Structure to design on (140 residues):
């Protein structure tokens, strides 16, 4: 059975959408394995976003992710990696389909980085890597 690392990003926590996002995850049928409100750190984000280092949105992305607490979540269920990406919707909240977290609850705020409410692991390999970064105690 798969696990995925989900983050409610600082915009989602600030807007009071943590509960709504957890509700959608649970309503879909996935299990919550770990849920923790915490501040990210430069160190955690450098590891988490290593694939984006050097891209134009990298520095604003890290700054945004440090702008307030995030809700770090591990979910579990058959095909939950793909399933949560489907719940989250496309990266750009303006064009994300209605019915998705980003499509229903997100918009463009005219800022340097797309504030798109959530992160979800995009493969089994990144899920294992990201769970190791955020919840090393869960690494099996
Ligand atoms: P995550 O689940 O957060 O990883 O989103 P994603 O997989 O849909 O996007 P990706 O991993 O490609 O990018 C990580 C994050 O960087 C996105 O969620 C956005 O917040 C931001 N981002 C990605 N691409 C762009 C872009 O082209 N412009 C801007 N401004 N921000 C971007
Ligand atoms: Mg990604």
């Amino acid at each position: 059975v798969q696990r995925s690392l989900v983050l409610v990003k600082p915009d989602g926590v600030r807007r009071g959408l943590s509960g709504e996002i957890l509700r959608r995850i649970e309503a879909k049928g996935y299990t919550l394995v770990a849920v923790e409100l915490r501040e990210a750190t430069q160190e955690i984000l450098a590891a988490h976003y290593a694939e984006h280092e050097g891209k134009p949105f990298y520095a604003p992305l890290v700054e945004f992710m440090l702008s307030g607490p995030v809700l770090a979540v591990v979910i579990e269920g058959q095909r939950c990696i793909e399933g949560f990406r489907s719940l989250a919707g496309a990266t750009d909240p303006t064009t994300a389909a209605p019915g998705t977290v980003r499509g229903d609850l997100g918009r463009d705020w005219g800022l340097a980085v797309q504030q798109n409410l959530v992160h979800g692991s995009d493969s089994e390999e990144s899920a294992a890597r990201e769970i190791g970064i955020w919840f090393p105690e869960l690494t099996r």
Notes: The mean pLDDT is 97. Residues 15 and 58 are 23 Å apart (CA to CA). Residues 18-28 form the longest helix (11 residues). The chain has one domain: 2-83+115-138.
